[in-house]
Amino acid sequence: MIEFAAANPALAAVVAALRIALALYGASAAWWLVEATVLARGGGVDPEEVEWGYDDVQVRILTIDAEPVVQATVNAVPDGIDDVRVIAEADIEVDGADVHVVPGTFECDATNKGRAVEWARRHVPCDREYVLYLDEDTIMAGFEGLPDADVVQFTEKPLYTGSRIAYLSEVFRVGYQYEQFAFHRLRYPLYAWGGGVAVRSSLEREITWDVATITEDTNFIWRAADEVGVSFAVLDVRFRNQAPPSLRAMTKQRRRWISGTRADGHLLPLAYRPLYYTRIIAWAFSPLVPLLVLASLVFPGTAPGMEWYRTASLALFCILFVYTLVGAAAYDKHPLTWPLYLLLTPVAFLAHSAGALWGVVSPVTTFEVTEKVTPDVIESVHESMEDGALSEHDGAERLMREADEEFTFDVFDD
To answer: Is pLDDT above 90 for 269?
Structure first.
């Protein structure tokens, strides 16, 4: 290898860069496989094995002023839950919930969405064991109660809203997020989805949301893990939220996610940071994986170890398709449709990574709510969804199909 570098310095530099990229992505993929095949065992809670019921939960829905979107979310809260609050930035009218408007004069260290959550923590009374936070577009499904854990994460299954590429990217992302089932074994869960998460109210009072961040959900769980330790559970009921309605909206959303977690990385202990930073690099630079494969084909035998490099790069490329398969299974797509999702995987992960790469190169420091569509738009783009399906949905049931055993053949309609 030394002789090769001396004789071919430029090519040696290219090969070294490729190997570094391969090693970083390989570390991330290897960790995901450990999580998915070993640590995830026993990580999901059976929805029927819950210890806390409807009377133990206060629901808080966060919004700026998206009245029709919020109304559908409120309508989907199971009838047995009688404490439903909407935390808004403007005065809106919503049936079935108490609306609390965050005063413009309220000041704290938290900003944007975190500021609203912190105001609610201080000023909205809660005598329940848990506060269940929902985004303005989160439709509850299959909810029967909560397991006994400090933080309960709900799985998600974003609905198609008109952008096919964004929907495919969500299928890919949901597959990757299977790793959350392993987080109960980690002292520091690597991230949280704030659009469907229940927090023990006593923990919330102790930790607070009063810090400047644009990813308040992950920031909260990292600080809680550091200060007092937390128990974490995943409830696999697949709450329905909206896939971004456009590539532009999705790209900005991903940029914010990765910018926020990068900014908060100092909260993690040194032992966790390699996992954290490797994941960020792998997410943002996953489009490089096909290029790694191409490089191994273009430069066969030009450097020592290139045969090994080709095998490794092909293996990592295949893992991208594994994420898609896991996502398709989580969506209950019929196995006969899986080859189509596999074929579209390059489109999905390229679109999914664009915003992350943007966030790495140019991090954002302000929070911008992802664009949402009204319920009638969702109903119009789903052939199997009748008019009023969202407004009449009871969150104790599944949204569209009656059982897990039912599959859907439609690629974009579920």
So the answer is: yes
Taking the C-alpha atoms of residue 355 and residue 301, their distance in angstroms, rounded to an integer, is 35
Closest CA to 164 of 104, 245, 228: 245
- Both tokens of 365, joined, read 């420091």
Total of domains in the chain: 1
How many CB atoms lie under 10 A from the CB of residue 304? 14
Chain segment 108-152, per-residue pLDDT in tens: 999 889 999 999 999 999 999 999 999 999 999 989 999 999 999
* Pairing of β 130-135 and β 57-62: parallel
CA-to-CA separations, 65 to 68, 69, 71, 93, in angstroms, rounded = 9, 9, 11, 10
Q: Tell me phi and psi for residue 384, to 5 degrees.
A: -85, 0
- Domain span at residue 412 reads 1-414
Residue pLDDT, tens place only, 173-196: 999 999 999 999 999 999 998 899
How far the first Cα of the chain sits from its last, in Å, is 54
